[in-house]
């Protein structure tokens, strides 16, 4: 695997890994068996990455993906990422046409999951389900790229403990990365939450 580029936010590094490029005859991904095969290949690809790596899921060569295939690969991939099985590895969607995005959106909504997607212009969108309070915290990180729970709390005018819970939930969902930044006066630990995009 080639050397992954590194980008840094306030001194915190997250690597952008080599993309996983979906390929299929005639650009069509269909059926649960194909989804299971892709999930296995995706897991192999991610396991070769270092911790704190963000992997683009590149759908440029795909014209259509059916619901059963998307459910088998994307749903199970996100559940495995959420379980912590792959530690600090993250994924996002790139180069997905309208049809592919709509299918992914439907599957993610049904399963109460979410993933970030980046369009050709570099704009970041959320695909799937995310409650409004969580979305507020995510939007702050997408805008700022990095912040502590206290900084997010101040920006959205919410209690810092509530915000910390939301940020930790976003981290478990694979939408942000939590990086430790040492201890704070009076005890406790300081974390930065970093947008994966």
What report would you give on this structure?
This protein is an alpha/beta fold and about 200 residues long. The chain folds into two domains: about 1-130, Transcription Regulator spoIIAA, CATH 3.30.750; about 130-195, Winged helix-like DNA-binding domain superfamily/Winged helix DNA-binding domain (Arc Repressor Mutant, subunit A). It is about 40% helix and about 25% strand. It contains six helices and twelve strands. The protein has helices at about 30-45, 65-80, 100-110, 130-145, 150-155, 160-170, and strands at about 5-10, 10-15, 20, 30, 55-60, 65, 90-95, 115-120, 125-130, 145, 175-185, 190-195. The strands form three sheets. Strands 1, 2, 3, 5, 7, 8 and 9 form a seven-stranded mixed sheet that branches. It has a three-stranded antiparallel sheet with strand order 10-12-11. A hairpin with a 5-residue loop joins strand 11 and strand 12. Helix 2 packs across helix 3. The two termini are about 20 Å apart.
